[in-house]
C-alpha cells in the first residue's frame, strides 16, 4: 500500500517476499514501479477504492505492508487537507481487517510510536487489529544503523498472529558505520571535472540529514525546511533547490553544489540502476518519501524469519 517509488517493496524483495500487488494513487510513482519491475502488478488507484473482495489473490497474504503518508496528531491539524494522511491510515487498518494477513508492516513518523499525542491512535490500532488476532509491536529505527548514509528515524508497526508473533524480534543494527555523504557522492561530484570535488568529499565527512520529500500541496524540489537546508550546508550542499547535473569543470571550487535527483536516490540507498519517472519535483518527492530499501530488508528479514518458524 502507498508503494511510491518502490523503496519498501524493493527492500522486501531482497528479504524474499514476492509482491502480489502494489497500490499507489500517483501516476508517476506507478510508472516508476512498472519501468523498473514490469513483472510487478502496480495499480494506480486511491487506496480507499481498492476492493480486496474482488482480488482473491490478496486475501490472507503473508504480509500486508505500507509506507503510509506522514500523519499529524489530531491536536496539530491546521488545515482540512492535513486530515488526508489520517484518512489513509484508517483505510489501511480497514484493509488489514478485510484482507486478514499473517503479518502487517506499517512505516510512519517516529511520533506515532513514541509520542504521547498519538497514544489514542496506538490504542485504536492495537484494539482494532486484535479483533482479527494480530498482536502489535512498535519500534523506531534509524536507517543509518543499517548502512544508509542518512540520519533517518522512522516509526514502525509490526503486527502478527500467533504463533509467529512470539517468534518475532526487531532487527539489530548492522554494527558497521554508515558511509559518509562524501564517500557515496564523491565519485558523481567529480564525474564532470569539478576541481573542488576531492576537497568537497573530504569535508562532507558525515551522514546526511533526513531527506524531506515535502507535500504535494505546496513547495517545489528542495531539501526541506530551513533547518534541513542548514544541516545540508554544513556538508557543503546548497539545499535551496536541486541541480540538473553534477558540477562541471567551470563550477567554482568555493561554491556549494546542489544535489541532483540521482544523488538524492543514492543517499536513500536505491540501486543506481533504479530509474524514476516524472519531472524533477515528482522524481525527488518519490525518493524523499521512500523507505530506504536496506531498512526495509532488515525489517522484512525479521518478519520472514518469524513466519518461517
TrEMBL record:
Gene3D superfamilies: DNA Methylase, subunit A, domain 2, Vaccinia Virus protein VP39. Keywords: Methyltransferase, Restriction system, S-adenosyl-L-methionine, Transferase. The keyword Transferase applies. Pfam families: DNA_methylase. GO terms for molecular function: methyltransferase activity. GO terms for biological process: methylation. Its EC number is 2.1.1.37. The keyword Methyltransferase applies. Belongs to the class I-like SAM-binding methyltransferase superfamily. C5-methyltransferase family. This is DNA (cytosine-5-)-methyltransferase. The lineage of its organism: Bacteria, Bacillati, Actinomycetota, Actinomycetes, Kitasatosporales.
Amino acid at each position: 500500500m502507498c508503494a511510491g517509488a518502490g523503496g519498501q517493496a524493493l527492500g522486501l524483495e531482497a528479504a524474499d517476499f514476492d509482491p502480489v500487488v502494489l497500490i499507489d494513487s500517483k501516476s508517476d510513482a506507478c510508472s516508476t514501479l512498472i519501468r523498473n519491475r514490469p513483472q510487478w502488478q502496480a495499480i494506480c488507484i486511491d487506496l480507499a477504492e481498492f476492493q480486496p473482495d474482488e482480488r482473491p489473490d490478496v486475501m490472507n497474504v503473508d504480509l500486508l505492508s505500507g509506507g503510509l503518508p506522514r500523519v499529524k496528531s489530531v491536536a496539530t491539524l491546521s488545515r482540512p487537507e492535513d486530515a488526508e494522511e489520517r484518512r489513509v491510515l484508517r483505510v489501511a487498518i480497514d484493509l488489514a481487517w478485510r484482507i486478514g494477513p499473517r503479518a502487517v508492516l506499517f512505516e510512519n513518523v517516529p511520533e506515532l510510536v513514541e509520542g504521547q499525542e498519538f497514544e489514542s491512535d496506538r490504542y485504536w490500532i492495537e484494539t482494532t487489529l486484535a479483533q482479527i488476532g494480530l498482536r502489535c509491536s512498535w519500534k523506531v529505527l534509524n536507517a543509518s544503523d543499517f548502512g544508509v548514509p542518512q540520519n533517518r528515524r522512522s516509526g514502525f508497526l509490526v503486527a502478527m498472529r500467533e504463533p509467529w508473533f512470539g517468534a518475532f524480534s526487531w532487527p539489530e543494527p548492522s554494527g558497521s558505520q554508515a558511509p559518509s555523504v562524501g564517500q557515496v557522492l564523491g565519485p558523481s561530484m567529480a564525474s564532470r571535472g569539478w576541481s573542488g570535488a576531492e576537497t568537497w568529499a573530504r569535508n562532507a565527512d558525515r551522514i546526511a540529514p533526513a531527506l524531506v520529500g515535502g507535500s504535494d500541496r505546496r513547495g517545489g524540489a528542495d531539501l526541506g525546511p530551513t533547518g534541513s537546508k542548514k544541516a545540508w550546508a554544513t556538508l557543503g550542499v546548497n539545499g535551496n533547490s536541486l541541480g540538473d547535473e553534477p558540477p562541471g569543470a567551470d563550477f567554482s571550487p568555493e561554491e556549494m553544489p546542489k544535489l541532483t535527483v540521482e544523488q538524492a536516490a543514492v543517499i536513500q540507498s536505491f540501486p543506481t540502476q533504479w530509474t524514476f519517472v516524472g519531472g524533477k519535483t515528482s522524481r525527488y518527492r518519490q525518493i524523499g518519501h521512500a523507505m530506504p530499501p536496506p531498512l526495509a530488508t532488515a525489517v522484512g528479514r525479521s518478519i520472514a524469519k518469524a513466519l518461517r518458524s
